[in-house]
Amino acid sequence: MDKLYGLSHLFMTVFLHNFSMFMVVPAITDVTMAALCPGQDECSLAIYITGFQQAMIGLGTLVMMPLLGNLSDKYGRKAILTLPMILTIIPVGILAYSRTKKFFYVYYVFKILISMVCEGSVPCLALAYVADNVPESGRSTVFGILSGIGSAAFVCATLSARFLSSALTFQVSTLIAVIGALYMQFFLRDSVIDDKHLYTPIISQGNPIISKVNGNLESKKHLLKALRSIKDLTSFLNSSLTINQAAIVAFFNSLADVGLHGSLLYFLKAQFHFDKNQFADLMVISGIAGTVSQLLLMPILAPILGETRLLSVGLFFHCVHMFLYSMAWSSLVPYASAMFSILYVFSHPCIRSIVSKEAGPHEQGKAQGCISGICSIAHIVSPLVFSPLTALFLSEKAPFDFPGFSIMCIGFASMISFVQSLMLRVAPPILN
User: Which intervals hold domain Major facilitator superfamily (MFS) profile (predicted)?
Assistant: First the structure.
C-alpha cells in the first residue's frame, strides 16, 4: 500500500500538464495561419515550418529522452521532472502575451529549443514512476489508467478551448502550467525503488567534507555515464528480441502519429474550411472515446487478451482510422473517424508495458527513455517525408486530384506497425 502512495499526485501532475499543453492545440493552427498567411485557407509555408519544427524537436529528443530517463534512474523522477514542467511554461506564455507575427516567431524559436529538451519527457518519466511503484502484473492496467488521465485532460482542455477566445486560451494555458509545476513541487513525493537503493540527490545534504570529495566524484561518474545516451539506446535495444521488436512497432506507430498530427488539421482546413471550433469538436470526440476506453475497457481487456494481442487490435484500428480520414468525402466523415480512438488508444500503453517488463527495477527510466528516443527518430523522419507530400497535394500543383493522399501514405506506415505487432513475441533476454 505504501508503494502506491503518491500515484494520485502523479496523476494530478500529468493531468495539469496535459491540460495546459492540449488547450492550445485547436488554436495553434489558426494562429499560425493568421501570422504567416492571413486570410487564407491554404498555406504551404505553415505546413513546411510545422514540419521543420517537428524534425528539429525529434532530433533533440532523440538525444535527450534516453539521457533524462537515465538521469532519473540516478537522481530521482521528481528532480528531473521539474525541468520540463517549468520550461514548457515559456512558449505558451509568449503567445499569451501577443500573437502578432513578430511574437509568433519568438514563440516558434523558443518552442523548438525547449521542446528539443522537454518534448515527451513528462509522460516518459511518469511511466517510469509508475513502474517503480506497481508490480509487473498490474502495470498494463495502470499504464492504461495513466493514458486515460492524459485523455481526460485532453477532453477538458479541448472543451475549454472550444468556448474561449484564442487570447484567453493561451492565458489560461499558461496559468494551468504554472499551477501544475507548483503542485508537483509541493505534493508529489519522489519514488524509491527499495530501502537499499535510494536515489542519489543532486544536492547532497550530508557532511560538507564528504559531499565535497566523494559526493562530487560520484555525481560526475553518474552524469558521465548518463550522457552516453546514444550508446545506452543501442545497447538497450540489443538486450532483448522483444525490446527490438517493440521498438520497431513504436517507431512506425510514432511515424504515423507525427505525420497525422502535422498534416490532418491543414488538410481539414483546406478541404472543409474547418476552424478552431471544428478542430476542438473533433478532439473532444476523440478524447472522450479514448478516455472511456483507457479507463474502463483496457483494465478489462488487458488481462483477458494480453498486451501483445491488445496492441495488435489497437494498431489495426489505427490504420482504419487514418484510411477513413484520407478518403473523407464529407465534412461528417472526420467526426466518424474520430470515434475509432475508442479502439486504437490501446497501442501506446501496451508498448510501454511490454518494454517495462523487459527492464530491471533500476532501469525503468532508461527503458522508457530509450523507447521515447526511438519515437523521436520518427519525429525527424515523418515531417521530412509527409510535410512536403501534404503541401504538394493541397496545392494546385498536385499531380492528381486526391488531397488526402499524404494521409493515406501515413496510414501505410501505421499498417507496417500493425504487421510487426503480429510478429511480436515475449522472448527471454539475449544479454544481461
Answer: 6-432
What does the alpha-carbon distance between residue 103 and residue 81 come to, in Å, rounded to a whole number? Answer: 28
Equal fold, 1-189 vs 225-426: yes
Which element (helix H / strand E) includes 247?
helix 241-272
Q: Sign of dihedral through CA atoms 318, 130, 89, 230?
A: negative
Alpha-carbon gap, residue 45 to 108, rounded angstroms: 14
pLDDT digits 0-9 by tens, 230-249: 566 667 677 777 888 888 89
**What are the residue ranges in the chain where pLDDT is below 50?**
1-5, 195-219, 222-227, 427-432
Check if the beta carbon of residue 123 is closer than 8 Å to that of residue 3.
no
User: Which residues have a Cβ under 8 Å from the Cβ of 107 and sit 6 or more positions away?
Assistant: 91, 94, 95
Helix, strand, coil share of the chain (percent; to 5): 80, 0, 20
CATH homologous superfamily of 225-426 equals MFS general substrate transporter like domains (1.20.1250.20)
Looking at residue 182, its pLDDT comes to: 94
Q: What pLDDT score does 4 carry?
A: 45
Which cell is 243 given? 525490446
Domain positions in the chain = 1-189, 225-426
Query: What does the pLDDT read at residue 387?
Result: 83
- Provide the pLDDT for residue 425: 63
CATH architecture of 1-189: Up-down Bundle (1.20)
Long-range contacts of 321-326 (CB under 8 A, 24+ apart): 322/256, 322/260, 322/407, 322/408, 322/410, 322/411, 322/414, 323/408, 323/411, 325/260, 325/264, 325/267, 325/404, 325/407, 326/404, 326/405, 326/407, 326/408, 326/410, 326/411
Residues 170 and 162: their CA atoms lie apart, in Å, by: 12
Q: What angle do CA 254, 256, 259 make, to 5 degrees?
A: 105
The per-residue pLDDT for 226 is 46
